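In this supplementary section we document a worked example of the pipeline. Step one takes a protein sequence of length 335 as its only input; no multiple sequence alignment statistics are reported here. Step two produces a three-dimensional model, which step three serialises into structure tokens for compact storage. The input and output of this example are shown verbatim.
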Amino acid sequence: MKHLRFIAFAFLAFSSWTCTTDFTLEAEWKDIPVVYAFLDPTDEAHYIRVEKAFLQEGGDAREIAQIADSLYYDNATVQLQKVGSSQLYTLEKVDGNLEGFPREGGVFATAPNYLYKILQSNINLVGGSEVRFILNRGDDLPPVTAEIVLLNPIAPLQNQPPNPINFSTYERAINISFNPGPHAQLFDIRWVVNYLENTPENPSQFEPKQVTWVLESKLEREDGASNSVLYRVNSENFFQFLSGAIDPATDRVRKFVDIDIQITAVGQELADYIRVSGANLGITSSNQIPVYTNMSEGRGLFTSRTDIVLPGYQLDVNSITLLKTGPLTQNLNFQ
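The serialised model returned by step three reads:
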């Protein structure tokens, strides 16, 4: 499955990330490259957004942003290089709208929606290795570069959590533990709760439903922590989530199916971005938002991400009983 996940402000993405290039330009006629990329060695294809920003004298930035020709370089070359190798991999310029990644409407022109693409089968990115981004803009401008370490795949630790999950009382808790490798710094943990639901019109016909519980959207790895990451999940919090996410019902029956656990990790670059962006927003601050970029010139974020889905987690018999009859969820009519 291929992903296109660009982030400029918040971590989360993790399930559909978008690119934001919203900033004020004060310099006139200065070429400012804007780059966003989240490389995941497990993806089938890798996409990088490369744009430019400038403001001509007396111009209106919002009007210019609606002109597609003003957003993109005419003759740019985007390449990736494995650090330690001389081989360069040139990405293909494609229209994201035709790749299944339409750009959301707003300040910037939506068509064409140029991205730079390379298939994983053509570059074979590997977790733990270093990769360099290179943008050549032409016009005798210096190349724009950035280097990152690609994230290793996330390895779940056995029986953490156990399957089936024991949430038989509100006092119980379980551990989620996993090894994301040494370079992952921020984590997003979600539970997708799958269930069936019928309707009064068709009581014998059940339709699949799901709700997503965001346990943690910006879990940061502590300095000096071991390779494994541990997150504790409280039973009462789980049932409280269900009581708020699913409407009470007396006219329909619901049946629990299972839980899919989703874990996403991103690199140090995004952790730094979030930390810097929030560093000057306190009550005594000047409210001037600092700028973070790991590009050699311009703005943007070049980083790595990876995720894992652990499907099919069950609740044990006593947990199902608590779901059906417990005071937090008995009005949801699970049978």
